[in-house]
């Protein structure tokens, strides 16, 4: 038992930190709440550093709790990814605190609990752990989304997310039940061993289809994307950021593990379906983003489109595809955090995030305007920024497999078309900042120093991932290659 | 015997579940809640047939008992009169039936293709049931369930502990969302 706890030490630390924040609220005066957020962010930073410790990384490729919990390079990558996202979102939340009107420390604690759920999901090697960690994430987000009770929009977003989230959980658990009924086991390792028989069974396929539907909801892939725009727009902005980055990445780590390493044969069988889902997601997101005037809604549709691009990595069914997903997600994390932070800073006073609110930002705060330009350019996928390199890798991974399959070429065409369309609406943001019709407000935007540091780090990371891709590419490859090896192991008859 | 009981419980469960959401005679939410009790009890009957006695008892204690009392409390506190007057929406009913029908057809065809379309006779099911009766009962007993949940070897303790965090989150969240406006 004691050895097994070493495997879950990071998750336990994060959950315990959440409890400490909840308790700390009782003993600290109102004025110290801000400090609580920064302390929590600092502690997460410490956990992040601890994840590089020899005694922890030495456990890699091990399994605990009877094979339910798997700690491999992929899980490590995603745990660090989630921790980084958590740190940024905590700093963001402290800056956002005054707009929450009370319950700040609970808000911080909930971010930490959701984070621990995501970290468990990164290691899920069993359907029971998969379902429980997904539920921990989703239930926490129901509350995080509807946290601003004084805003009708936030409550509406919460109710919509609750109902559609419950439906998707029903899909997921129904699918898991069918898979269990057919395989007699919830463990991914058992499924991997028995996949040859299972693929013959249509009940198993039916169950996996439901599981895919449940996960597609989390990553907001077509046709399960309807919730995203309303929820992204209505939720408090730090929640939106965490939802767009963390929840989506959690969905992807599970998709990679399930469809990349447990039943790769099934993925090959479903290539057509996956291509259709990816292409429609890209088209839907990009085309619906065109007429949007609300910045958060615009980024929601762009998030749908990005889920489509990321699905291309699953479609590619190769280590390169997985590595490309990891690289793209890393760039996406920094870009979205920076973009949402700037949107929050500029629209801090007053209601709504209409695109007119950022008019003339280049006059008010040239630095913020420049950072937002970098985000828009990176999201649009223009060299030399992180978004370009990520999209390039994704397209390359699909193109490498494309020969002899017309579907792959169609998907590539759709992806390129999507990029061209997206340039139009991303540049709408830049145009509003630099060439405004009229500038309603001339005062510069005040930015607190922790937020300034976080923004600076994000911008640096966007540039780093775009300009010097060698090292991060290596990390992504390490994380993805282990995945490939484990599926090769499964194919090995001696096992 | 088991086949007959299964048909009774399953039919009752489906029928009363239908009456929970779409009762053509009575739109009173309290009636719906009471039909939900019937559904829960029928499902616990199914659990007994599967040999999961502990689950059956918990189903009645927790769902048919505690949760339903809570439901009734909320319904009566909120006094949902408008819900009672609302008519069934025929269009959405038809759409829902179509969706469920399509899903059922796909599911049925997948079962047929996997197991062959002839349904096994009741005797065959009973024979198979008797042959495997012992292990099934061992799985469903309280002792086996406790060992499955808490023994460190098979690992279900981890999801179990995560559920406790989940429940904490849900509890704190409900209090946060439903308390009076601060200040």
Describe the structure.
The complex is a heterodimer of chains A (495) and B (183). Chain A is mainly α and 495 residues long. Chain A has a domain at 270-487. Helices cover 78% and strands 1% of the residues of chain A. Chain A has helices at 2-7, 9-27, 33-50, 54-57, 73-100, 104-123, 127-145, 152-183, 188-193, 195-198, 202-218, 227-234, 237-262, 264-269, 271-289, 295-316, 319-346, 361-364, 366-380, 386-401, 406-434, 449-467, 470-491; strands at residues 62-64, 69-71. Chain A has a two-stranded antiparallel sheet. The radius of gyration of chain A is 22 Å and the shape is globular. Chain B has a domain at 2-88 and 120-132: Up-down Bundle (Four Helix Bundle (Hemerythrin (Met), subunit A)), CATH 1.20.120. Chain B is 80% helix and 0% strand. Chain B contains 9 helices and no strands. The chains are: A mainly alpha (495), B mainly alpha (183). The interface between A and B is large, with 45 and 29 residues.
Question: Summed up, what is this model?
Answer:
Chain A has 495 residues and is mainly α.
For the largest interface, the chains and their residue counts are: A-B, 45 and 29 residues
Helix content of chain A: over 70%
C-alpha Rg of chain A, in Å? Answer: 22 Å
Give the distance, in angstroms, between the N- and C-terminal Cα atoms of chain A: 26 Å
Approximate strand percentage of chain B: under 5%
Structural class of chain B: mainly alpha
| Broad shape of chain A | globular
Rg for CA atoms of chain B = 21 Å
Q: Treating each run of at least 4 consecutive H or I residues as one helix, how many helices of chain A?
A: 23
CATH superfamily of the domain at 2-88 and 120-132 in chain B: NADH-ubiquinone/plastoquinone oxidoreductase chain 6, subunit NuoJ
How much helix, percentage-wise, in residues of chain B? over 70%
Mean pLDDT rating of chain A: 87
Give a short account of the largest sheet of chain B.
none
Give the end-to-end Cα distance of chain B, rounded to a whole number of Å. 64 Å
